[in-house]
Amino acid sequence: MTYDPNRPTTYNTTERTADNAADRTKESIDRNTSKAHDAVDSAQATAHDAVNRAQDTAQDVQAKAQQAVSTAKDKASEYSAKAADQADAATTTAGEKLSDVAQTLREKAPATGTTANVADKAADTLDRAGTYLQNQDVADMRADLEGIIRRHPMEAVLVGLGIGYLLARSTRR
Question: Which end of the chain has the least Cβ crowding within 10 Å, N or C?
Fold first, then answer.
């Protein structure tokens, strides 16, 4: 029962029942308010936990993606290095073969005359090409080719067209 200074000191059963009902209603409201506050606090805690888990999951996914990218870069570098090594080995082998052909041409060419001069110039050219292929790696050859194309752009375009025409004719058959 709540104390009310304006209430008369004597009151009847109806008033007492009303007072008791009012007290129970106030207590019920207080309990329900407390339960509502508890439910809100619980919902906030659950939402906060869910956000934290989502952030952790996002960070895990990001870390895994970065690891996958790093692995892919490493594999690409490894394959690139392996391909460059194979290309260098192939150019060295081709250079050795050209030098062998130049030596064979010198041995089998006549000793004097116009044919001997032409064979000697061809052997010298083959020998220089073989030495170049043996001593240069693919990156150096690419740089040399870029320099030639920059110095002679029209000739490079014409050579490219000619090679394209020859490739097209050879694939048509």
Answer: C
